[in-house]
């Protein structure tokens, strides 16, 4: 069962580290939730009880940090990371929590931020949260002030459609989306697959002033946004200027930029 923290959603403005807790042991989940109440910079968005719920919650809520049990029914913690990568999704900062130390090497091979042993020590937990805070702040600085472009900006892209390879102008791209590791490009004239493997790689080859990563799964051309549609919990969707008038979700993280961009 997925549990959403409604009180936390109301107080979202005061939090800085959005967090999920996923553990099949209810008591362990409750204990960690209780410990995190002493860290005002942490906002627990929701809790889950297995790996499949973890993947679903991460995709929907886009947390910055996830406390993830290693051994869970259906899909274990390591499998969660692998499945997120297979879907081409950007990974949150993962902290594994477990009673066993033999998985540590595999956890760090999968680029986990930390590995905590049960029963949790509050001092050790504080160190992990501080580390996560520093890492996330550094990433935000890079996003706000990107380094000079190292990849040449492309004005033409290849799109595969109906067993044919078309060359399209980059400015004709309305949006790109990724699902199960496959990128679909929607342009003014056609829809097809890209030869890029990730949205990060695609965006790096395009004009960053024009193409905006509004969601883990979507990259949009800001000049092709037709309408901003209010959504639930103060979020928005973008209605794009394609034939289907596709509505693209804006992630919670990018909502602030949307408000600044359009003075909402």
Structure description:
The protein has about 260 residues and is of the alpha/beta class. It folds into two domains: about 5-145, 3-Layer(aba) Sandwich (Rossmann fold); about 155-260, Beta Barrel (OB fold (Dihydrolipoamide Acetyltransferase, E2P)). Helix content is about 30%, strand content about 30%. The protein is built from eight helices and 16 strands. Strands 1-3-2-4-5-6 form a six-stranded mixed β-sheet, sandwiched between helices. Strands 11-10-9-13-12 form a five-stranded antiparallel β-sheet. α2 (about 25-35) links the parallel β2 (about 15-20) and β3 (about 40-50). α3 packs across α4. The longest helix is centred in the middle third of the chain and has 23 residues, at about 120-145. The radius of gyration is 20 Å and the shape is elongated. Mean pLDDT is about 85; it is low at about 5-15.
